[in-house]
Every structure is written in structure tokens, then in C-alpha cells.
Amino acid sequence: MTSNNPGPVPASGTQTRRKFLKLSAGAVAGGLVVERTYHYCTESKVKAKIVIVGGGAAGVTMSAYLSKLLRHVDITVIEPSEIHYYQPGYTLIAADVFTPGDIAKPTKDLIPSPVKWLKDSVIELNPDGNSLVTSANGRVAYDFLVLVPGCQMDFNLVEGLSRETLGEGNVHSIYDFKGAALCRDAIKQLAVTKQGRLLFTNTYTKIKCGGAPKKICLLTEDYLRQRKLRQYFDITYLANQNELMKPKVYGDRLLEIFRERAIPIKYKHRLVAVDTAAKKAAFEVLPEPTGNPIALDAPHERLVLDYDFLHVVPPMSAPDFVKNSAVAVPIDKVNQGGWVKVDKETLVHAKFKNIIALGDVAGIPTSKTGAAIRKQAPIAAANLVSLMEGRAPALKYNGYSACPVITQYGKVLMCEFGYDDKLMPTIPFLDPAVEREMWWMLKVHGLKPLYYQGMLKGRV
Ligand SMILES: Cc1cc2nc3c(=O)[nH]c(=O)nc-3n(C[C@H](O)[C@H](O)[C@H](O)COP(=O)(O)OP(=O)(O)OC[C@H]3O[C@@H](n4cnc5c(N)ncnc54)[C@H](O)[C@@H]3O)c2cc1C
Predict the structure, then answer these.
(1) 356, 349 in Cβ contact below 8 A?
(2) Chunked mean pLDDT (size 10), the chain, 460 residues
(3) Contact indicator for 50, 43 with CB cutoff of 8 Å
(4) Which one-letter DSSP state was computed for residue 436?
(5) Number of domains in the chain
């Protein structure tokens, strides 16, 4: 059930208009169901043992597509968590629009029945020997491997931070399920304290949903503004990068919105330490010229800011067992992620042709989102079957990703793009640089059912 207290709603929305927009959101979601990238309809009789590492968004979606494509299903998903989380809902938990229960479902209910679930964690990959090692079941052999273990949240790379202590010293992060609810409570508490210095940070690594740090900043600002408390708060956004967002058309509009809402932006500020007892945050101020990511040993000066509320984005990387294996992009001063080295179009590993990776762990130059996985999975599944049949992978992923940036309660800037920052709007005749109520309706009412009933079931 969605929360009974969905926060402020747009003042202009009449019941009829909202009903219409809700229906439109459903229609767009329905349209997305019809608009399939997946045309590989022939069932294959090929036999092989497939292991899927990770039962998150990409893992469940791949198991759904592959179990439809293969007559002889021998697929094992290795996933340690009994609960599967719809992560795009974390922002809406913090906004008090969704409840935590809306977005947490048992893993066993989502993995399709012919697929086996091994409740375990992978600790080592041996791609030369077509096997891996798990913490409880030891060695597991495979013929083909689908690597989808997502991102590792490296909170501990910021001194004084840890995932377990989120909430302490009013430090929050929506990049964690429990953290999102704590963040919601802290935002509500601001309406009680009625003053404060609020800092919202971004980090230096590639992250999942690059829009999320902006969303939580703008939502909090809107929450206070709608309660006529905005003037009592100093709100600052601090980013490691030197721009808000790519492609430029979205970045420019977001910049205007931050200006309109009087939220100063400090670029090239990397959060390096937090003192939760003293409520102080330390940043390294990065030198010119800059790129993203920036070498960690670049010269810098330090800035220490007092805060009353701090929202952090942890540095992210591939899980350690990926980083420490031969499947990863080698780590150097600039490439610190250790993401899986795959071809950006076929999603097949550059060296190990029986390995495919997609989702957050894939080392490809696009934004890490569930929307990207919706497009990647049918291509990756069809290409895997081609490899199993001894054919070359034929389908190509164009880098499509989407980030619905919530700019206020009731409005979303729908950012859709592909490789090389190419704009790829679902509705091409709409101005992409305009935040709209219909996208909010889609985000709140359309995308979750699309995820559970469409994507995870291999239907879109
Ligand atoms: C705050 C936030 C907001 C977001 N907003 C949006 C949005 O608006 N739109 C959008 O499209 N996307 C959004 N996303 C991004 C989206 O949720 C992710 O891109 C997507 O979930 C990634 O899927 P994945 O399968 O690659 O990784 P995950 O869904 O994270 O799944 C990885 C799985 O691998 C498992 N795993 C990890 N290590 C191991 C191991 N050693 N052995 C076995 N299994 C392992 C994990 O337990 C996990 O279940 C958001 C994410 C966050 C956090």
C-alpha cells in the first residue's frame, strides 16, 4: 500500500485532471509494455548450465527472459538476500509517498519456477576454469555466466561514515533501504526544528541513478517551501563533478531550477570525512582542470562545513569478488570502479565469451538504472542464447537509460538518453527540458507495476 500521507500535492491539480494524468501514466506504462525491444521468439533447444550471480533487477529479469527462450532450463540464480527491493522507490520512501512495505518483496516469489535459487554469496570468480566459489556451497561450475551483482556501496571510503550508522548525527542516505525511511523521518523533523544548514552531496565514482542526489535535494527544498519554512534553511548542493547532469539539455534545465530555488551549487567538492558528533563535513576542493572521475591523489585544499542535516552518496564500485578477478576493468588512479569489461553493445565479456554482464556492474558508458536494464536484458538474453548455439551475438544495446528526476512534489524532469549523450525520449514531440506532472504520475503510479509485472517477468 502507498503511504496515507503522500506529502504535498501540486496545488493546481484538480481531481479530474489528476485522474486523467494517472490514466495517462498507465497508458505510457502500457505503451512501454507494447514497445518491446525483444524479438527473439524462437525457443532454443540448446542445453547448457547457466549461473546468474545476483537476483536483483537484472538477475530476476534475465532469469525470466532466459527461461522463456530455452526449452531445457538449467539456470541457477545465486543471491544471498531473501528480500528483493525495488530501489527506484527509495526516493519515494524518503518523500513519504511510498512505504517501505511497498517496495520489498520475497525473492522466492520473483524468481520464475523453472529457475533454481541458491541462497548464497559468491566470493571468488575463476573465469579461466568456468567456475566460481560461494561462501556456503563452495565451488560451482557453469557453462555460461551472467554477472549481475550490482554496485557495492563503499560508505567506509568516507572517514566517519558507515552504512550501519546512517541516521547518527543526522547523516542520511537514500542509497539504502533503511536509510531512506530514516531520511524521511529527518526531513519531517526539519518542519519541527524550523531552521538549519542542509548539505546534499554527490560522490566521485560512477553511481547508480545519477539523478537521485538531485531528487532528494529538490524534494526536501520543496517540502520546506510548501510549509512556508524555506527561508529558515540554508541548503547547499556539493558535487564532485563540474556539471549537474548530462546530456546538456537536462543539465541546463536543472541548473535553472537550482537557481530558481536559491540552492547554491559547489562543484568539484568531494566529501572525504564526517564528524557526526560535531556535525562537521570535510570536503576536498578539486583543482582545475577536472574530469569525472578525478584521480584520488590530485592536489587539493580542504573545506570544513558545519551542518544540521547531511545527505550523502557513498562512493560505489563493483563488488570486491568482481574487482579482484580477471573479468574486471583493471583498477588504476582513474578507473577505480572495477566494473566488468564487456562490449558496450553486445554486453558479452571482452575476453571470456561465455560471460555476459549487465545492470549496475557492467563497465559501459551509460547511466546505471533499472530503465537501462529493461533495454539490456532482452538483448543480453538473446545474445547469450546465440553464444550457447555457437553463433555470434547479433543484438546491440544502444545505451538507453532513463532517470526521472523529481524536481518537486508533483513534477518530474524525464531524462532519457543513450550512448554519446544522444537524447532518446519515449515521446519525441514533447520538449524534453520541461518537468511535467504526467511524468510524476508515471513515476508514482506507473513504473512500479511496470517493474514487477513487466520487466521482472520478461515482458518488456
Ligand atoms: C536511491 C535510488 C534511486 C534510483 N532511482 C531509479 C530510477 O528512478 N529509475 C531507474 O531506472 N533506476 C533507479 N535506480 C537504479 C536501479 O535501482 C538500479 O540500477 C538497479 O536496481 C540495478 O539492478 P542490478 O540488478 O544491476 O543490481 P541490484 O538490483 O542492486 O541487484 C544486485 C543483486 O546482487 C546481489 N549480490 C551482491 N553481491 C553478491 C554476491 N557476492 N553474490 C551473489 N549475489 C550478490 C545483491 O544482493 C542484489 O540482490 C535507483 C537506485 C537507487 C539506489
Answers:
(1) yes
(2) 45 51 55 48 89 98 98 97 98 98 98 97 98 98 98 97 98 98 98 97 95 98 98 97 93 98 95 97 80 60 95 98 96 84 98 98 97 98 98 98 98 98 96 97 98 96
(3) no
(4) B
(5) 2
Contacts of 195 (CB under 8 A, 6+ apart): 232, 233, 308
Q: Known catalytic residue: 209?
A: yes
Q: What pLDDT does 12 receive?
A: 43
Residue type, 48: A
Question: Across the strands, what pairs with 270?
Answer: 284
The residue written with cell numbers 532517470 in the block is: 403
Residue 291: domain span:
155-315
Question: What pLDDT score does 309 carry?
Answer: 98
The closest of 315, 350, 321 to 336, measured between CA atoms, is 315
Helix (H, G, I), strand (E, B) or coil at 407: strand
Given 151, 217, 403, 415, which residue is catalytic?
A: 403
Residue given cell 572525504 in the structure block: 272
Residue among 152, 215, 360 to mutate when testing ligand 1 (max atoms within 8 A of CB):
360
Question: Of the candidates 316, 319, 318, which has an alpha carbon nearest to the alpha carbon of residue 122?
Answer: 319
| C-alpha to C-alpha distance for 4 and 297, rounded to whole angstroms | 48
Q: Grid coordinates 579482484 are at which residue?
A: 324
Q: Confirm whether 41 is a catalytic residue.
A: no
Q: Say yes or no: 413 and 268 in one domain.
A: no
159: domain CATH number is 3.50.50.100
Tell me the C-alpha distance between 450 and 446, whole Å. 6
Compute φ and ψ for 80, nearest 5 degrees.
-80, -20
Cα separation, 419 vs 424, whole angstroms: 10
User: Does 69 share its domain with 172?
Assistant: no
Ligand 1 centroid–CA 369 distance in Å is: 8
Q: Following DSSP, what letter does each residue of 141-189 receive, concatenated?
A: E-SEEEE----EE-GGGSBT--STTTTGGGEE-SSSHHHHHHHHHHHHH
CATH of the domain at 133: 3.50.50.60
**DSSP label of 261:** T
29 alpha carbon to ligand 1 midpoint, in Å? 21
In whole angstroms, give the CA distance from residue 56 to residue 64: 12
Residues 81 and 195 in one domain: no
Q: Within this chain, do residues 85 and 206 fall inside the same structural domain, yes or no?
A: no
Q: What is the pLDDT of residue 125?
A: 98
CB contact at 8 A, 241 and 268: yes
429 is written with which cell numbers?
514531440
Q: Ligand 1 mean position to 146 CA, how many Å?
A: 15
